[in-house]
Amino acid sequence: MSKHKPLYSPRRTCHSETEICNLFERHMKTLLDQKCSMINEITEWGNNLIRQIQENVDKQKCLVERGYKNQLHYLHTKHQQFLDTALVYEERKNREEVRQLLEQCHELKFELGSFEYPEQSIPFIQIEKEQKLVEVTHNSFNTHQPAKRSTVNDDFRIKVHEGISPSSNGIK
Questions:
Q1: Which of 111, 108, 86, 109 is nearest to 99 (CA)?
Q2: Domains identified in the chain, total number
Q3: CA 86/CA 81 separation, integer angstroms
Q4: Does residue 146 lie within any of the structural domains?
Q5: Could you read off the pLDDT of 57-88 as tens digits, one per residue?
Q6: Which domain holds residue 35?
């Protein structure tokens, strides 16, 4: 089902009018197809970018989890070392060494790290050229001589995506 409104009502009877309307209907269909194709390409670009961002999010979360597990293991190891050392100091009844050990416990710091926000270039998609409408002016019609070409030829086209391949948006 076409998404554009026909240019004429079905009651036209002149052959040339009908042919002209049919040509313009085809032009509108071509234009609609181009629009749909471009919308799909923009959507694909956006989905690829979102996927890349989500992959980075997942990777960073994994790094935080790994860092947490490593720090937790180190924390448990240090905890056990301090407990063992404290027992030795307690057996010797050396209050000064126990006090120093407690100070060392207070001074310990455990951190997972911090975030950096390096600048990343985002390859935004955009239309390379403005759409140019090709119009035939009234003066270009030669009313005294018949046209050399049939009106069936599609001599006039709207070129939107000239020189851009679908994969040239920088996203893989």
A1: 86
A2: 1
A3: 8
A4: no
A5: 999 999 999 999 999 999 999 999 999 999 99
A6: 15-112+125-140
